[in-house]
Amino acid sequence: MTRPYTIALAGNPNAGKTSVFNALTGARQHVGNYPGVTVEYKEGSALHEGKKVAVVDLPGTYSLTAYSPEELVSRNYLIGQRPDVVVDVVDASNLERNLYLAVQLMELGVPLVICLNMMDVAKTRGLRIDAAKLSQLLGVPVVPTVARQNQGMDDLLAAAVQVAQSAPEWRPLNISYGSDVDQGVAELADILQGAQERRGLLSARWLAVKCLEGDQEVMDRVRETPELADKLLPVCRRVAAHIKSTMDDDPDSIVADYRYGYITGITRQVVSSEREVRMDLSDKLDQVLTHRLMGPLFLFLVLYGIYNFVFWASEVPVVWFEHFFAWLGGVVESALPPGVLSSLIVSGVIGGVGGVLGFTPLIAFMFFAIAVMEDSGYMARVAYIMDRVLRIFGLHGNSVMALMVAGGISGGCAVPGVMATRTLKDPKARLATILTVPFMNCGAKLPVYSLLIAAFFAHFQAEMLFLLTLISWGLGLGAAKLLRVTVLKGEQTPFVMELPPYRAPTIKGLVIHTWERTWQYAKKAGTMILGVSVLMWAAMSFPGLGPEQDAAWQKRLAAAPGQTAGLELKAERARQELAGTLAGQAGQALTAVTAPLGFDWRANVALVGGFAAKEIIVSTLGVAYSLGEVDPEHSQSLSKRLAAEPGWNPLKAFALILFVMVYAPCLATVVMIRRETGTWRWAMFSVAYNTLIAYLLALVVYQGGKALGLG
Ligand code: GDP
Ligand code: MG
C-alpha cells in the first residue's frame, strides 16, 4: 500500500483552522505535543474517495519568521516533513492581512491550496471576493468555504488531494523587494548557491532573504559552516547597512512593505466593497496616480518634466566640464613636443575619456530623477500603469521593471536590466523581455544622443530626448511582439503588480543612489573606456604616413603660398594620414555596407568600438575628430566640430542616433544574456536581431529623408 498523502493546515489564529480540521477529520483525530516545545500538535485523517488522507493542524501564525515558537514549529515542520500539500486557511473578511502568510508560504515554495474561509462574514460586511481571479493571480487553487457550517469542505479536500497527486516540485515565488534589496539578495544568493546541497531543497534566494531579514534560525545554521559564514556574513552586514542608509529602515521592514505591496496588487483586483472603505494616504494617491486615464497622463508629464529638468540643470556644468577638458588638452599640447606621446595623451586619453566624462553632470541628474521615482514608490506605479500596455505586446508586468532598469526613462543599464528579468516566471515572456532590454536608452547611449542633439538639434534638447524615449519603447515593444508571434509564441500567464506604500525619499538615500550610479559611470570611463579609447587611438594613428610621403608633404607645405592655403593643405594631410591607418582602412572597408545609411568611415570605426561599450562611440569620434583637428589653437568641443563638418547634417545624425539606439548590445550585455539564458545562441541572436533592425531602420530613415529632400 502506498503512503497516504499528508495535508498540513496553516493559517492565522482564528481564521478557522481548527474548524476546518474538525470538519475534515471528524472524530478521527488525536492531540500531541511537538517535541521540546509546549506547542500543541493535532493530527487526524480524512477520507477522500475511500482513501485515507493524513491531516496535520499546524499552530496558528501570522508569519513564517523565527520570532515565536509557533512560527518556528510551523516552518520547521514544512521544511523538515515536506507535507504533500499545504492548505492555508484564510479569513476572507480580512483578506489583506491573512494573505501575508500565504505570500510567505508561496515564497517558501510549498504546494499550496487556499481555503477562503469565513465567506459568510465577508458577505455580511459587504465584501465581494472574486475567488477565481484570486486563484488565477496567485497561481494556486482557491476554495471558498464556511467551515463552521461545513460548506465547501468536499471541494477543499478534492482540491488538496489533486495538488498532492500531481506531486509538484517546490516552486518558490520571487517577488521584487525594490532594487536595493533585490541586488543584495542576488549577491547573497550567489554565495549560497554553492552551499546549496547541504541546505536541503530550500532555494538560495529564500535563504538569502532570510539572512537579510536577520532570521536567527537561518543565521545559526549558516554559522555551522564556517567557510560559508566567513563569506556570507560580511556581505550580509554590508548590504543591510547600505539598505539602512539609503532607505532609512531595516531590511526586514522593507521586505514586509514589498510583500504587502504584492498583496495590495492582488486585492485591488480581487476585492470589491459595497460600502465605503477607509483609505490611507497611499490609497488616495493611487486613486489618481494609477487611474486609467489620469495615471498615464501624469506619467507623461513626469517624464517630460524630468527631461526638461535634467537638461536645464546640467547645461552649465556640462559646459564647465567641456571647457575643462579642452583647456587640459591645450595645456598638455603646449607642454609636450609634438609627436606620438603628445598625440596619445591629448587625443587618446583626454579626447576619449574627457568626451565621456564630460557628460557626467547630465548622467548624474538623470540618476537623481530616477532615484526620486524609485525611492518614493512611484516607479512601482509606473510599472502598474505600463502593465496594461505591455500585455498587448506579449510582455509581462515585471518586464516593466527590467525595461526601466535598462533605461526605460533614459540612463539605466542593460546588464542589471537583463538580471531583473529573474522575477518573471514564464520562460518565454522572460526571454522576450531579455531580448527587448537592449532597445532601451541606457546611460551609455545618452552621451551619443547628447552629442548629436547638441550639434544638430540644439533648440530641442529635451523634446528630442523625449522623442527618443518614445521611439525606443515603440521599437522595443514592436520587436517583442514580433518575437512573441514567431520564435517565442506562447500563452500568457496572469501576473501580480506590486504596489508598496509610498515613502518620502530621504535626502541621504537620494544622494547615495545618485552617487553610486554616477560613480559607476565615471569608473567605467576611467578604466575600460580609457583602455579601448587608447586602442582606438592607436588604430587611428598607425601605421601613418611613410617617410617618403611625409617628406613630400613637408615640401608641399613649405611651398604653400599663404596662411589659408597652408591650413587647407594641413587638413588634407591629416585626412590622408587617418585614412591610411588600420582603423581608417577598416572603416573604409565597411563603407560599402554603411554608405546607404550615410555613415562615413569615422562613424563606422566608432560603431565598431561601440560594441565594447556604447560610450566608446563618443570617445572614438572625439579621437577621430581631434586627430583631424587642423588648428589646435582653436580647439572646439566635439559637438561644434561635428556641426561644422561638411559631411554631417541633421538627417545623418538622426539616422546615426537610431542606429546607435538599436544595434548590437554592448559586450557586457551579451555576456549577461549568455549567463541568464544559459546559451550563446540567444546572445548571438540578440546581436544579429538588433543589428538587422538597426540597419533597416537607419536605411529607411536616411533614404526616406533624402527622398523627401531633408538631407
Ligand atoms: P483557528 O484559531 O484558526 O483554529 O480558528 P477556529 O477554528 O478555532 O475558529 C475561530 C472562530 O471562528 C470559532 O468561533 C469558529 O466557530 C469560527 N468560525 C470558523 N469558521 C467560520 C466560518 O466560516 N464562518 C464563521 N462565521 N465563523 C467561523
Ligand atoms: Mg485552532
From TrEMBL:
Native source species: Desulfoferula mesophila
Signal peptide: none
Residue ranges the record marks as coiled coil: none
Biological role stated in the UniProt entry: Probable transporter of a GTP-driven Fe(2+) uptake system.
Claim: Iron-sulfur is one of the keywords in the record: no
GO CC annotations on file: plasma membrane
GO molecular function: ferrous iron transmembrane transporter activity; GTP binding; metal ion binding
Pfam families, sorted: FeoB_C (PF07664), FeoB_Cyto (PF17910), FeoB_N (PF02421), Gate (PF07670)
Gene: feoB
Residues annotated for Mg(2+) 2 binding in this entry: A23, T25, G26
UniProt protein name: Ferrous iron transport protein B
Keyword Signal among UniProt keywords: no
Family: Belongs to the TRAFAC class TrmE-Era-EngA-EngB-Septin-like GTPase superfamily. FeoB GTPase (TC 9.A.8) family.
Localization terms from the record: Cell inner membrane
List of residues binding Mg(2+) 1: N22
Ranges where the FeoB-type G domain occurs: 4-166
UniProt cross-references to InterPro entries, sorted A to Z: Fe2_transport_prot-B (IPR003373), Fe2_transport_prot_B_C (IPR011640), FeoB_Cyto (IPR041069), FeoB_GTPase (IPR050860), G_FEOB_dom (IPR030389), Gate_dom (IPR011642), GTP-bd (IPR006073), P-loop_NTPase (IPR027417)
Regions that span the bilayer: 293-312, 324-346, 353-373, 393-419, 431-458, 464-483, 525-545, 653-673, 680-702
